[in-house]
Amino acid sequence: MKRVTMQEIAKRAGVTKATVSMAVNGSKRIGEATGKKIMDIVRELNYIPNESARKLALGRSGAIAVIAPRYNGPFMMSVLNAFEEKAFATGRYLHSIQAYSTMHKIDIREKLLKQILYGRKADAVVLISLRPDDETVELYKKEGIPMILMENKVKGAHSINIDNEAGVYKAADYLIKKYGNKITFVSSMPARSNDAELNPVYDARLNGFKSALKDNGIKFRNAMVAYTPGFEYHEAPAAYKELKKNNAGINSILCSTGDKVAFGIIEAVKKDGLKVPADIAVIGFDDLLPLTLLSSPKITTIRQDFEEIGCAAFDMVMAAIKDKPAKDMNVIIEPELIIRESA
Predict the structure, then answer these.
(1) Which residues are CB-neighbours of 246 under 8 A, at least 6 positions away?
(2) I need a surface site. Which of 2, 70, 118, 266 has the fewest CB within 10 A?
C-alpha cells in the first residue's frame, strides 16, 4: 500500500506543505476552519506523519532520559514505574523513556550526560540521587534541555526532593519520647572510593537523627550508628550485632536504609530472644508494601509516596519542556510516619 505524503494532503486541501505541517502539529497560527479541513483529509486518507522528520523539525528527540546509580532498590524502581505509568496515562512520551545506570561511577555519569547532550538524545534528563557538576548543568541550560534532579538540588536545574531530614527527625523524636534515650541508627555505607557517587539522602537522614538527639538533650556518638553496604534483609544481622556490641541496653533502632533492613533487624532481635517492641522498638523507611504488613510485628515506618514522587517528576518534565520556565522549579514532598506494631 502506497504511503500518503504531506504533499498529497496539501494538494487536496489547496494549501502549502507548511500549512499541513502546522495543522498536524496543532499550531494556532492557522485558522480553525483551515485546520479542520486539513485534519478531515488527514483522517480520510489515513495519513501517518513521518515521526523522525517531525522530531527533527521541532528540534526534539522524542525521548526522556532517566539516570540513576543503579535500579536495584525499591525507591529507584518504584519511582521509575510511576513515572512510566504517568507517561502512559497522559499519552505523552510512550515507549520513549530511556533508563541509564552510572554503576555509582562519577565518570560514567558525566560521560552519559555529555553523550545525551551532544547527541540530542533526550528532550529532558531526570537524575535520581545524582549530582551533576556545575559545568554540565550550565551546558544543558544553554542548550535548552531541562534537567530535573530527584533527591538533590543544584542551581540551574529543577528538583524534586523528599524531606528526608524531617522524616527521620519525626521518627527519632517519636522513639525517644516513647521508649527512652537508648536509641540507635542504621545508615547506608559512605562511598568507598574517590570516583564513586556520594548519595546526599543518607547524610540528610543522619542529620535528622542528630537533630532529634540534640533537641532531646542526648549527645550523639558515632557508635550509635551502624552501616549497611546496601538495602537488603541479609545485611541486617551484622548491623544489629554491631549496635548491640557498642551500645549497652539499646531500646530502639531506626533503620534509614529501608524496610527490608528493618525486617531483618526485627528477625535478628527475635532470634536474640527479645521482643519487638517490648525490648527493642524498630522503625523502617519507605513503607514497602506488602512487606511492612506481612512482617510480625507489622513495621512502623517512614512512608515516602513513590507514586506521588514519580508523577510529580513527570509533570515537572512536561512543564519544563513546554513552558521553559526561567526560574528553577523546586518541589519538596513531606514523608509520613506510619505507626504500626514494631514501634
Answers:
(1) 223, 224
(2) 2
CA angle 20, 96, 121 (to 5 degrees): 85
Q: Which residue has the higher pLDDT, 228 or 54?
A: 228
Q: Name, in order, each residue with C-beta under 8 angstroms of 236's C-beta and a sequence gap of 6 or more.
A: 186, 228, 255, 260, 261, 262, 263, 264, 265, 267, 268
Mapped onto helix, strand or coil, the DSSP state of residue 239 is: helix
How far is CA 184 from each of CA 83, 282, 328, rounded to the nearest angstrom?
Answer: 35, 10, 37
Closest CA to 260 of 268, 272, 251, 270: 268
Task: Please write the tens of the pLDDT for every residue from 242-285.
Answer: 999 999 999 999 999 999 999 999 999 999 999 999 999 999 99
Grid coordinates representing 219 are 549527645
What's this model's pTM, rounded to 2 decimal places? 0.78
CATH fit for domain 6-58, picks 3.55.40.20, 3.10.20.30, 1.10.630.10, 1.10.260.40:
1.10.260.40
Element (H, E) at 183: strand 183-188
| Residue 341, φ and ψ in degrees, nearest 5 | -105, -20
